[in-house]
């Protein structure tokens, strides 16, 4: 009976979950064993007919999860259970299975195969999100709204400006992923402590052929395991991306508050239920899910970091935690990105509320605009700041508009006419270079796709071929 909500299908796409299910993980083990056998046969280390028999038997339809688990109950070693079952299925040729390899030659290389497919899925989702954010930024680059700092009204921005900030951040996460893949997607075929002693004189050639066949780079050097800083970097990156999405989700949740209601998640009024007892509710449930799952992903970072300092050439303390850390990081981030894509596709925008909220402070939101105008007219900047500070406080206490108070302030009227003051207190006149900044950010975000990874990484990716 499933216990984890991932297993029930609640979180993660089918394509991502399949990478980490029992059959998917076992098949990657078998793919590595097949690649090893074929490489060995190509250099004459084992007979070609033996390698072909091993390759044909490296299928979960033959070496089934059930057979492996039954054997593991006796061996108490999951990888050796697989090796024994595969060897038996290969008959006489089974004596060449796992030739010169240690368990983590298979495990770590199979992790790299899984993560290669997983990162492709995540990269595609990030690109789609980046494009959605760029479209929103462009569409709303002139829609003026309140900018907020400390939860208070600051100066005006545009909705497009806000979306452009998120688009650029998403693009940076794409750049980070592209860069870390060079370090993450590596395999090993280096034996018990990493010295390659078991593969003999042809060890480098065996490694090269195995990794080329699998479309991976060989780790520059390893112990019995690929060093865990690589996985920790990915999990930390996952935490950054999850937090970036949490940032957008939190903003939508705040702006969807009844008393603000400038943007809101989509809501299917014909069928969607907001509350079991309050029929009027339209809750930001998708954004709240994103924020909740982001907490879980950030919680994976500590064990990932603690897996870096293994004893000597390795111990087994990383293995059990990684059975959670790696699948959870991929699957939950996949769910976060899918959910945020839905939020952005269906987002509702309320310009009339943005205008209403701009007027809540009765002009105080433009105090900086007036301050700078006075400074440019010759009044000292600090003097102008103090005059506007006092005027804003008076307007707040007396519930007056800032314009009314300023028109009653001689130091201001001596330098600014009523017409000038009126223009300064229009929100649309004080968005600075927001439009141009949106355009610059969108150009950067879309340009990330034109930046190519290193030639070395590109070459290894192009060498990938099916078994």
Summed up:
The protein is mainly alpha-helical.
Descriptive key words:
single chain; two-stranded antiparallel sheet; Ribonucleotide Reductase Protein R1, domain 1; 6 strands; mainly alpha; Fumarase C, Chain B, domain 1; 467 residues
Structure characterization notes:
There is one protein chain. 62% of the residues lie in helices and 4% in strands. It has 467 residues and is mostly helical. Among the domains are: 17-99, Fumarase C, Chain B, domain 1 (Orthogonal Bundle); 364-424, Ribonucleotide Reductase Protein R1, domain 1, CATH 1.10.40.30. The strands form three sheets. It has a two-stranded antiparallel sheet. Strands 3-4 form a two-stranded parallel sheet. α8 links the parallel β3 and β4 (217-218). α2 (22-42) packs antiparallel against α3 (48-57) and α4 (65-75) packs across α5. The longest helix is centred in the first third of the chain and has 37 residues, at 103-139. The relative contact order is 0.12.
């Amino acid at each position: 009976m499933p216990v984890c909500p991932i297993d029930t299908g609640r979180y993660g796409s089918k394509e991502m979950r399949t990478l980490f299910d029992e059959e998917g993980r076992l098949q990657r083990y078998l793919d590595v064993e097949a690649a090893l056998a074929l490489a060995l046969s190509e250099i004459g280390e084992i007979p070609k007919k033996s390698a072909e028999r091993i390759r044909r038997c490296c299928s979960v339809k033959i070496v089934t999860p059930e057979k492996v688990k039954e054997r593991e109950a006796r061996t108490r070693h999951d990888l050796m259970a697989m090796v024994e079952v595969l060897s038996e299925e290969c008959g006489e040729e089974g004596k060449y299975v796992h030739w010169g390899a240690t368990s983590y030659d298979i495990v770590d290389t199979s992790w790299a195969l899984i993560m290669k497919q997983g990162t492709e899925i995540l990269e595609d989702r990030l690109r789609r999100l980046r494009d959605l954010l760029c479209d929103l930024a462009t569409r709303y680059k002139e829609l003026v709204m309140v900018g907020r700092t400390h939860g208070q009204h600051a100066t005006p921005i545009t909705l497009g400006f806000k979306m452009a900030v998120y688009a650029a951040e998403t693009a940076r996460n794409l750049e980070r992923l592209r860069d870390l893949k060079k370090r993450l997607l590596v395999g090993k075929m280096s034996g018990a402590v990493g010295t390659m002693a078991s593969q003999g004189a042809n060890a480098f050639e065996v490694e090269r052929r195995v990794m080329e066949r699998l479309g991976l780079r060989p780790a520059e050097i390893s112990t019995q395991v690929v060093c865990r800083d690589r996985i920790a970097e990915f999990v930390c990156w996952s935490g950054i991306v999850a937090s970036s999405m949490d940032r957008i989700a939190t903003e939508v949740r705040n702006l969807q508050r009844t008393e603000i209601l400038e943007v809101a998640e989509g809501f299917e009024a014909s069928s969607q239920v907001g509350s079991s007892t309050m029929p009027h509710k339209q809750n930001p449930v998708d954004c709240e899910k994103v924020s909740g799952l982001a907490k879980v992903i950030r919680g994976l970072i500590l064990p990932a970091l603690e897996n870096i300092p293994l004893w000597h050439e390795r111990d087994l303390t990383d293995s059990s935690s990684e059975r959670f850390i790696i699948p959870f990081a991929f699957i939950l981030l996949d769910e976060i990105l899918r959910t945020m894509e839905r939020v952005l596709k269906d987002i509702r925008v309320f310009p009339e509320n943005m205008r209403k909220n701009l007027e809540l402070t009765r002009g105080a939101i433009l105090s900086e605009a007036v301050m700078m105008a006075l400074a440019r007219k010759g009044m000292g900047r600090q003097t102008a700041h103090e005059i506007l500070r006092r005027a804003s406080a008076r307007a707040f206490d007396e519930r007056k508009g800032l314009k009314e108070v300023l028109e009653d302030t001689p130091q201001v009227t001596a330098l600014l006419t009523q017409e000038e003051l009126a223009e300064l207190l229009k929100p649309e006149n004080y968005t600075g270079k927001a439009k141009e900044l949106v355009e610059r950010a969108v150009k950067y975000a879309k340009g990330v796709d034109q930046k190519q990874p290193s030639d070395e990484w590109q070459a290894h990716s192009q060498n990938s071929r099916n078994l």
